[in-house]
Fold this protein.
Amino acid sequence: MKKVVIFILVTFNSLWATAQCNDYYVLNEGTEWTYETYNNKNKLTGKTQQSVKSFEKTPTGFTAIVTAVLYNEKGKEQTKGDLEMVCTNGTFLIDMRKFISEEQQKMFASYKMAVQSENLELPSKLTVGQTLKDGSITLTAEGSPLPMKMSVTVYDRKVEGKETITTPAGTFECFKISSKSKVNTQMGITMNLNFSGVEWFALKVGMVKSESFDKNGKSSGYTQLAAYK
């Protein structure tokens, strides 16, 4: 009887996860995350609260609208906006716009902005040694007297292993994913920036922690999950 009960529970959980499309981002209307960001000296520099405003099932997965509110280190609201989260055929699509800050996007606000984007992907199943798809985004200001263009590319994404990560939200068994990034900015002059990063993902929770490193491998700061419900 015990084996039958275990089988039923496993089957139910499997079907539920399939209905949700992706094992790492299991969303419903009202799902909330709070992330805290720290600099390389472990000093709090800001906080982001995200909540699912609407959730719609599609024939291949789901589409969710998530409201994100950014606060500074003193708790004062800085910016607020909506993001779209999409999952299709088991693959969660990560909007590349998250790699361009509100301040950077505002520099293009006076012009018609052309956007070319190839979103990152997070499969429903991860295995150590797996290589993941690259992502990129390019913003171009049309009609600017000087060339204004910004591009971000995230590449060389690899599932490095499994690690246990503890944050204020709890302790999670995570897959560790490393990546490299390059940023090209043209605003009269051309500037290039290269850095690397690591992200940790837990089942049914999503990203638990991320950390970025400069070209010399020195930590630039990290973001961690502070609350989830």
